[in-house]
Amino acid sequence: MRVLVLGHGKTGKLVAEVAAERGHSVHVLDAKENPNASALTPPFVAGFDVVIDFTAPEAVVQNMRAVLATGARMVVGTTGWYHRLADARGLVERKEAGLVYGTNFSVGVQVMLQMAKRMGELLKNAGYEFSIEETHHVTKLDSPSGTALTLANVVKSAAGLAEVPIKAHRMGDAAGLHVLQAKSAADKLVLTHEAHSRRGFAEGAVRAAEWLSTRKGCYDFQEIYTQM
Ligand SMILES: NC(=O)C1=CN([C@@H]2O[C@H](COP(=O)(O)OP(=O)(O)OC[C@H]3O[C@@H](n4cnc5c(N)ncnc54)[C@H](O)[C@@H]3O)[C@@H](O)[C@H]2O)C=CC1
Ligand SMILES: O=C(O)C1=N[C@H](C(=O)O)C[C@H](O)C1
């Protein structure tokens, strides 16, 4: 595949490496080469099979508009833009484009989400209080993390709760720690995922791009990760 990676930061760099290791031809644009999505003209985008975005919350919305408007395929790892999801979905449908988005592309977190759902179902109305803590590097722009918000939504709907509180911590270069706790008067149950590096995110994103390369439509990584 011809892959365009948007963002040459901590994660985008690894995505480019993993894509090259998996035999794809890779082109990378960072902020300087793509201000306000200006590089993403229809003829330029047409030169790629899939675009992968690991940029920033404001940049990703402009990038998605430019790429999806051409009917191209895009994998979005960037978080902090989900209030615009309905717009993105509409654009994908109108232009017959392809989009996979996800707050966390690591398989471990996907399994944690399944376990959190089960935990919520099994502990529903059983006297447990749920809470989430997440720890990330000090340069992270969004808070709480996209993954923590996804976890909270999964638990809320499984356990029938209005809210699950989230505490966000920022520390050094932490790649991503998510802890879900259910506490009762009698005991405590804890589910933890700790990323030791960003490699798992990058591998998941490249696999999602490979999966999307033969499809159209809008998909949450949660729905499709078992197909990779
Ligand atoms: N879904 C997932 O599995 C994961 C998601 N993320 C998310 O990915 C995003 C990026 O995270 P990091 O790599 O840690 O950030 P980072 O700050 O290290 O890298 C972002 C890069 O994007 C570049 N950029 C900004 N605007 C751009 C534009 N218009 N065009 C091209 N490049 C542009 C910046 O110059 C920077 O190099 C964040 O939203 C983060 O939450 C991060 C890791 C995993
Ligand atoms: O910014 C990060 O680093 C990460 N962001 C994602 C999130 O917001 O959940 C995924 C991962 O935790 C790393």
UniProtKB/TrEMBL annotation:
EC number per UniProt: 1.17.1.8
Domain Dihydrodipicolinate reductase C-terminal: start-end pairs: 108-224
Gene3D superfamilies referenced in this protein's UniProt entry, alphabetically: Dihydrodipicolinate Reductase, domain 2, NAD(P)-binding Rossmann-like Domain
One GO cellular component term noted in the UniProt record for this chain: cytosol
Keywords: Amino-acid biosynthesis, Diaminopimelate biosynthesis, Lysine biosynthesis, NAD, NADP, Oxidoreductase
PANTHER family given in the database record: 4-HYDROXY-TETRAHYDRODIPICOLINATE REDUCTASE 1, CHLOROPLASTIC-RELATED (PTHR20836:SF0), DIHYDRODIPICOLINATE REDUCTASE (PTHR20836)
Taxonomic path: Bacteria, Pseudomonadati, Acidobacteriota, Terriglobia, Terriglobales
Protein name: 4-hydroxy-tetrahydrodipicolinate reductase
InterPro entries xrefs: DapB_C (IPR022663), DapB_N (IPR000846), DHDPR_bac (IPR023940), NAD(P)-bd_dom_sf (IPR036291)
Alphabetized SUPFAM superfamilies for the sequence: Glyceraldehyde-3-phosphate dehydrogenase-like, C-terminal domain, NAD(P)-binding Rossmann-fold domains
Species: Edaphobacter modestus
Pathway it works in: Amino-acid biosynthesis; L-lysine biosynthesis via DAP pathway; (S)-tetrahydrodipicolinate from L-aspartate: step 4/4
